[in-house]
Every structure is written in C-alpha cells, then in structure tokens.
Write a structure and sequence with these properties.
The structure holds two protein chains of two kinds. Chain A is mainly alpha-helical. In chain A, 75% of the residues lie in helices and 0% in strands. Chain A is built from six helices and no strands. In chain B, helix 1 packs across helix 2. Chain B is rod-shaped, with a radius of gyration of 44 Å. The longest helix of chain B is centred in the N-terminal third of the chain and has 76 residues. At the A-B interface, helix 1, helix 3, helix 4 and helix 5 of A face helix 1 and helix 2 of B.
Chain lengths: 171, 363
C-alpha cells in the first residue's frame, strides 16, 4: 500500500510541478515586477527527481529524472530534452549516492545538499546546451539563484515530511 | 562474500546506468540540434498531449496576471492622483500668494497715477498697522526717519487724500487720517470753487464739510479737493472726497456728509509727498509747511495710456526654514486702448486753477 500511495503522490507532484513550471511561472515571469522573479524560477521537476533519488536511491531517482525531463522538455520546442535528461539524472544519481552516507536530519544540511544538487543540475544543463548551441549566452541572474534557494527550501521541507514514511533503508 | 559481490554488482549497474543516461542525453541533445527534421515532428506530436491541460492553465494564469496588472495600474494611477492632488494644493497656495502680490502690484500701479512737480517726491509706503485709542484714526506706515520722513508730510492713497504724518520713529511713522476727530483739511469744491473745511468725526463716522460761507449751497455730488491755502501742509488739488448728503448739525448749521475718496479702512499702500530736496545733498529750499505752493495733478483712468500686465511670475518660499517669500515678476507695459470720443466727452479732465506763487492771491 505504501508504494502505491508513494506513486500516487509522485504522479500528483509531477503533474502539479509541470503545470506550475511550464504554464504558470513563465506567464508570471513576463508580467510581474522584478522583485518577484526569485519566486518564479522554481525547479520543481528537477526537485522531484532529486527527492526521489535521496529517498529511494540512484536508479529510482534516475528513472524519475527521465520522466521529469520528458515532462519538462516535450511540451517545449526541441533543445531541452537531452540536457534535461543529463542534468536531472546526474542530480538524482548524486542525491541517491549521498543518501547512502547521510540521513539528512539537519534542516540546514538538507537544504544545502538539495541546493548544491539543484545548482549542479542547472550548471550541467547550461553547459550541455552551451556545448550544443554555441550562441546561447552565459547568464547567471540573481533571480535564478533566488529560485534555486527557494526550491531547496521547498525540497527540504518536503523531504522532512516524506522521509519518515518513504525513505528507503540504505543500510 | 555473496553480499559483497552483489553490492559491487549493483554499484556497477548504477554507474553503468548513469553513464548510459549521460550518453543518451548527449545523443538526444546533439540530435535536437543536428537533426531537427527528425526531432521536430516527434515534439509536434507530443506537444498537443500536454497542451490539452497546460493551455487552459496558461490562459487562466494570463487572465489572473492581467487582472493583477490592472490592479497594479490602478494603484499606480492612485499614486499619480495623490501626487497631482499635492501639486494642485501647492499650486493653489502659490496662486493665492501670486494673486496677493499681483493685487499689490495693481495697487502700486494705481499709485503711479500721481504726478507731482519736480520739486516734490513721492515715497511709497506700506500700511503696517492701526492705532485706535478711542475714536482716533491713526495708521502706521513702514517709513520713518531713515527714509527722510518728517511730521506734517502729506499722505495719499491711490484715489485720494489719506492724512498727514503726526509722529515718526526710526523706521515707521504714525499718520493721522482725515477721519480722525482732530483732523481738519481746507478744501474747495472742484466745480464751484467754493471753500470750506472737512472735519474728521472718528472711526466709521462720515466726514463733515462745513462751507466757509454758511449761506453757500451744499450740492450733493460735489468733489472736494485740497485748497492749498497758505501754511497748509497739503499741496493743492488732492481729491479728498465727495459730498453724498446734506444735513444740519445740532446748532442748525448745514454741513455736507462727505465720503472720503480713499477707502481708509482698506488702504494698504500709500504715498508720502515729500520735498525733493530731502533726497539731495546740500540743498534746503522748502519746508514741509510750504508745500501748499505746489499743485498736484491726479490723473484719471482715462488719462492713463498704459498699464502694467504681468507676463510671468515665479515664486519661492521656504516656510520651514525661514518664513520668507520671494516673488519674481516679469511684466510688460501695454498701452491701453484709446478712449472713445464719447468717453472723453463724458469724463472731462480735472480742471485745476493755476497756482500762483503767492497763496494770498488764491485765497
């Protein structure tokens, strides 16, 4: 029963994350004032892959990274799928690997790990897209960093609430 | 032993899967860039599936954000509105100050109607206060000893005689108006040239004109001007007032009720008539008591050929730091329209008798 509930929650989260990240936030990014932008750069689909990796291990994390990358890239024009696969997959894999060594009990540490994984995801996607499409500019805005910080806060809270029930025993 | 083997095998699988994912990802990324003819149809087939539920959300989000932006715009308009209200309030205040200064300029322009001989000088002054002990009518002006003002200097306003300086301080002077009970001014009627004296009767009381000859008829509407008799402090020709009624005093003597030409209670700027020598070094020709040898010509509106028209005004005031007000005016002198012939006929110029060197002859 527990894994069925987990799957339902996961599907629900992915669906909501896709709607928020692809339908709601881009519209708001275009129209809302500058100070709101950090709230509009949430990486929720990548967060789903990272959380799955941290809770269930590398393979489950990478599986979800494939799904999340598809949900993220396919509704858009070509150019995001490959990079998203690598970025999401790397972050989820590292999350699963770290989960073998740490239990992420401290909120600050948990936030830091998720933030670093999200940064790795963003960096790897940026590097790959830059490798393929050379004309893309290198841009790191404060709103993007703010978005990563906020996504890490959400991820930390979600992990804290999900870990007691869904975390795999890595020992 | 078996567990260790199983663990290493699982680790190998994990790393292999990661490597495979990276390789597949790179291949897909390269394909997205290099083979759009293959990739784009796949994306085009997949996109409608997602658009079925993403597009309604996009549209609704757009509506919400539009509403939010409209609210934001309303808020911005409200901010602008508040700012404009503040500006309107400030501008109204400035307008009132400029209107006040403009009124003062107009009054000063009215004072410019006065024309005096070269031997006399006109010194403008502001009324800065009133003293009213009992029925006295004493006004205080902002000219005094440092301005060469002396007692017995005549004081006039735009439309007529105000009074005479009674006492002076360093920078102020007290002017006894013609309404003061101690005031008596020798006058003649402008039309009939009949003589008499105007007495003041105190505050808010009409002036009284007693003809020199008591059988002389008192005609309502008669304009009275200063007579300029010997030893009079007033030059001849200054309009004092108009007879508006004829009455009898308790002793049965007829007198004329005179309305002063100058509105004494409302006057704000006056002119002092001084001997010009006071402003010239080394000369001492006339005394205040002999000003009656001169004749004042009051110009009527019809004889004015130009008026002062303000073209712009800038005003700076610092109410918080210091209660000062600086008003800079630019104005030009515009010629008045030529009076019509009818006007000239209906308003004849003031006809003054030529002043003779000896007052006795005029008397």
């Amino acid at each position: 029963m527990r894994w069925i509930l987990g799957l339902i929650l996961l599907a629900l989260f992915l669906w909501l994350a896709q709607i928020v990240e692809l339908a709601i936030l881009p519209n708001l990014q275009e129209q809302l004032p500058l100070w709101t932008q950090p709230f509009l750069h949430l990486h929720l689909l990548a967060l789903a892959a990272i959380l799955t990796g941290m809770l269930r291990g590398e393979i489950q994390g990478m599986t979800l990274a494939v799904v999340a990358a598809g949900l993220y890239a396919l509704p858009q024009s070509p150019g995001h799928l490959g990079a998203s696969l690598i970025g999401f997959g790397l972050a989820a894999f590292l999350g699963g690997t770290l989960a073998r060594f740490f239990r992420f009990r401290g909120a600050g540490f948990r936030w830091l790990v998720i933030f670093l994984l999200l940064s790795l995801e963003t960096l790897s996607i940026g590097v790959i897209r830059r490798m393929i499409w050379e004309e893309l500019p290198w841009r790191l805005s404060w709103s993007l960093v703010g978005g990563l910080v906020l996504t890490a806060v959400i991820g930390s809270a979600l992990y804290a609430s999900l870990a007691p029930r869904f975390r795999r025993d890595f020992d | 032993m078996n567990e260790q083997r199983s663990g290493s095998w699982q680790g190998f699988v994990r790393w292999f899967l990661l490597l495979a994912l990276v390789v597949i990802g790179l291949a897909i990324a390269a394909g997205e860039q290099a083979r759009p003819d293959v990739v784009t149809p796949i994306f085009n087939r997949m996109r409608p599936v997602f658009d079925q539920y993403l597009n309604p959300v996009r549209a609704r989000t757009m509506r919400w954000t539009t509403s939010l932006l409209q609210l934001n715009e309303l808020w911005r308009v409200e901010q602008v509105n508040r700012q404009l209200r503040r500006e309107v309030r400030d501008l109204r205040t400035r307008n009132q100050l400029i209107e006040a200064e403009l009124g003062r300029m107009r009054r000063m322009a009215g004072l410019a109607r006065w024309s005096v001989p070269a031997e006399l000088a006109l010194l403008p002054a502001d009324v800065i206060g009133w003293e009213d002990p009992g029925q006295s009518e004493i006004m205080i002006i902002n000219r005094g000893r440092i301005d060469q003002v002396l007692p017995h200097d005549p004081v006039v306003a735009e439309s007529g005689l105000v009074g005479v300086v009674r006492s002076i301080d360093r920078g102020a002077a007290r002017v006894q108006t013609i309404a003061d009970p101690l005031s008596a001014v020798g006058v003649i009627s402008r039309e009939q040239r009949s003589r008499g004296i105007i007495y003041g009767r105190g505050r808010n009381q009409p002036l009284e004109f007693f003809p020199e000859n008591e059988v002389q008829p008192i005609v309502e509407g008669t304009i009275l001007i200063t007579s300029g008799f010997e030893d009079s402090v007033f030059p001849k020709g200054i309009v004092v007032g108009e007879i508006v009624a004829k009455e009898l005093n308790p002793y049965g003597l007829p007198y004329g009720v005179v309305e002063p030409a100058a509105q004494l209670q409302k006057v704000e700027e006056v002119l002092l008539i001084l001997p010009a020598y006071r402003f010239e070094e080394g000369e001492d020709q006339y005394t205040t008591g002999t000003l009656s040898r001169f004749r004042i010509e009051m110009l009527t509106t019809e004889t004015l050929k130009a008026e002062i028209v303000p073209t712009s005004a800038s005003l700076k005031f610092e109410l918080e730091t210091s209660p000062t007000l600086n008003v800079d005016f630019e104005f030009q002198v515009q010629p008045l329209a030529e009076p019509t012939t009818a006007t000239e006929l209906t308003t004849p110029p003031i006809d003054l008798e030529p002043t003779t060197p000896t007052s006795e002859a005029a008397r």
